[in-house]
Specification:
662 residues; mainly beta; Laminin; Complement Module, domain 1; five-stranded antiparallel beta sheet; 4 helices; 44% strand
Length: 662
């Protein structure tokens, strides 16, 4: 055992010396050394590099380790996507690198799906609202960071959900406001042909015997799809009959206290008479008188030498405080016929002839001459003449008269020893029955209707027109005029403003009540706003100075500034909806929207927009113009209402654009 150990000693001491010699030769660059072997031993993800006279292995970009035995992938995403890629991104590690992807609702400014942020690319919001109809019919799209929201436009009502809503998530929709039938008003009558759309107005008139002291009663269709009831009501008219007096022995006169009654009133005069020598009543009669006089009077057919009680009241539905008067008629000893008689009116068109003579059984002949005219028609006249024979002392004759006509009736007693004539005037009221039927609109601003009347008889029509705009609260148009025609089927075209809701009240003056119809005029092309365009050759950015357009022909929705290559300007249509933002195009060769301003955001005084100032106007980026290019700058104004859209525009040219200053 001991010899074995001693014999191996010299060999084991020489081995380290040989290794040192070998290393020294390799350092001197001798052939066969390890100089080339270092590079050969580099890791597959490493590179051999010369540094300070030595060859060493260094891990490639994206890897970490000693370069020879270890090069491990470096996870650049470990610090978080926001730090590495920026806002609204997701980071994805790859062997030796990484890439970034924009989150849903955003896109890369280099227009690629993936990017690395060291070239300045970042994620910008996608304006989903550039796609028309995204929020369905009646919906208004509002862009939000990474998404969008939908709201109902003015004139539309939310159904099956709440605002804001998203069409891809829920079934919420917008329907045009329709309030349906207006509410009933106590003691009031609804005038037909009202509009049930937003802003529509239902008009009411009080029933006979009622009034609205506070003014006209209306109900308005609101943005909630319901009718807003009027705070005004119809209250009962209570009329007092005062100062009743007797004149000419058999005539009665009284006074009215109400100043609020403009129509004719029907009075009921109840007569009860008893002679001085009789136990029971000998004369009872009820007479009706229709008149609009403030001091009505009536002459009664009374017996002489009789005590009478006269009770005066107003016929329903009006209410009154009745009046009572008692008196005695004078004795009449004259038996001879003196030809005298008087006339009283009742039931509007009926005459009662009261003979003074007490002779009974004699036959009398009366001649009636009737002439009627209408104050509002120059060519209208109604004339008739006839004889009437009777043995009655108090005969009644009812005349066939036209409504709303002033008549003069002359009655003469014929074949009498003492001829006598009495003249009386009758003003007939308007017809209670509606004479206008089948009213309809055509050509947007024209009306036609049928009239129930005698052929070739002229009629006058009174128009009362109200116009309102929901988008322009201060806009109110009211006009009143009349026309005359003898046609059975009249037509008239009205001078109406565009983009306006109208209520048209039409009444034939021979009728008491009007008919009402609603008309809606469509918008027309809006007037172009006042615009100044400043262009300085080789100067600052071209500037567009804009003043707000007037909403003459309809509501203004928005203003857009578009930038087109000059070569495309002839093919561009102002009514097109295909223009997109700068970032949605792969290049600016197709043109783009540089700015969009909602009408409510445009001040009343002038505002300036430098073309290419790199700012956002609305949801659009105002990209810089390229040097040496020819451009067409377009200002487009959009008016949209009731499914009609108009978009006129004005144009300017920028030739050989150069941004250098003088």
């Amino acid at each position: 055992m001991g010899r074995r150990a001693r014999g191996a000693g010299p060999t084991s001491r020489l081995l380290p010396l040989l290794l040192l010699l070998r290393l020294a030769r390799g350092a001197a660059g001798e052939p066969g050394t390890d100089g080339l072997d270092v590079c050969a031993t580099c890791h597959e993800h490493a590179t051999c590099q010369q540094r300070e006279g030595k060859r060493i292995c260094i891990c490639n970009y994206g890897f970490v380790g000693n370069g020879r035995t270890q090069c491990v992938d470096k996870n650049e995403c470990q610090f978080g996507a926001t730090v590495v890629c920026g806002n609204h991104t997701s980071c994805h590690n790859t062997p030796g690198g990484f890439y970034c992807i924009c989150l849903e609702g955003y896109r890369a400014t280099n227009n690629n799906k993936t990017f690395i942020p060291n070239d300045g690319t970042f994620c910008t919001d996608i304006d989903e609202c550039e796609v028309s109809g995204l929020c369905r019919h009646g919906g208004r799209c509002v862009n939000t960071p990474g998404s969008f929201e939908c709201y109902c436009m003015d004139g539309y009502l939310l159904r099956n959900g709440s605002e804001p809503f998203h069409p891809t998530i829920d079934a919420t929709s917008c329907t045009e406001i329709n309030c349906g039938n207006p509410p009933e008003m106590r003691h009031a009558i609804l005038v037909e042909n009202h509009s049930s759309r937003l802003g529509g107005v239902a008009h009411y008139i009080c029933q006979e015997g009622f009034e609205s002291p506070g003014g006209k009663i209306t109900s308005v269709c609101t943005e909630k799809g319901t009718w807003r009831e009027s705070t005004l009501t119809c209250t009962e008219i209570l009329t007092k009959i005062n100062d009743v007096s007797v004149f000419n022995d058999t005539c009665v006169r009284w006074q009215m206290n109400s100043e609020r009654i403009n129509s004719k009133i029907v009075y009921v005069i109840s007569v009860k008479g008893q002679r001085l020598d009789a136990i029971e009543s000998v004369h009872e009669e009820t007479v009706k008188l229709t008149t609009d006089s403030r001091t009505p009077e009536v002459c009664l057919a009374l017996y002489p030498g009789t005590n009478y009680t006269v009770h005066i009241s107003i016929a329903p539905p009006r209410r009154s405080v009745p009046a009572v008067i008692g008196f005695q008629t004078a004795e009449d000893d004259i038996l001879e016929d003196d030809g005298m008689f008087n006339i009283s009116i009742f039931n509007e068109t009926c005459l009662k002839l009261n003979r003074h003579s007490r002779k009974i059984g004699s036959e009398y002949m009366y001649q009636f001459t009737v002439l009627g005219q209408r104050w509002y028609l120059d060519n209208f006249s109604h004339a008739t003449s006839f004889n009437f024979t009777t043995r009655e002392r108090v005969p009644v004759v009812c005349l066939n008269l036209y409504p709303t006509t002033d008549y003069t009736v002359n009655v003469s007693l014929l074949r009498s020893p003492k001829p006598h004539s009495v003249q009386i005037t009758i003003a007939t009221p308007p017809a209670v029955k509606q004479t206008i039927s089948n009213i309809s609109g055509f050509n947007e601003t024209c009306l036609r209707w049928n009239i129930i009347k005698k052929v070739d008889m002229e009629e006058m029509y009174l128009f009362h027109i109200w116009g309102q705009r929901w988008y322009q609260k201060e806009f109110v148009r009211e006009m009143t005029f009349n026309i005359s025609t003898s046609s059975q089927d009249p037509e008239v075209c009205l001078e109406l403003h565009p983009g306006t809701n109208y209520n048209v009240s039409l009444r034939a003056l021979s009728s008491e009540f009007p008919v009402v119809i609603s008309l809606t005029t469509q918008i027309t092309e809006p007037p172009l706003p006042e615009v100044e365009f400043f262009m300085v050759h080789r100067g600052p950015l071209p500037r567009l100075r804009l003043r707000k357009a007037k909403e003459k022909n309809g509501p203004i929705s928005s203003y857009q500034v578009l930038v087109l290559p000059l070569a495309l300007q002839s093919a561009f249509s102002c009514d097109s909806e295909g223009a997109s933002s700068f970032f949605s195009n792969t290049s600016d060769a197709d043109g783009y929207v540089a700015a969009e301003l909602l009408a409510k955001d445009v001040p009343d005084d002038a505002m300036e927009i430098p073309i290419g100032d790199r700012l956002y106007y609305g949801h659009y980026y105002n990209a810089p113009l390229k040097t040496g290019k020819d451009y067409c700058i377009i200002l487009r104004i959009t008016s949209e209402w009731n499914k009609i859209r108009h978009s006129p525009c004005c144009r300017w040219w920028v030739l050989d654009w150069a941004p250098w200053l003088l």
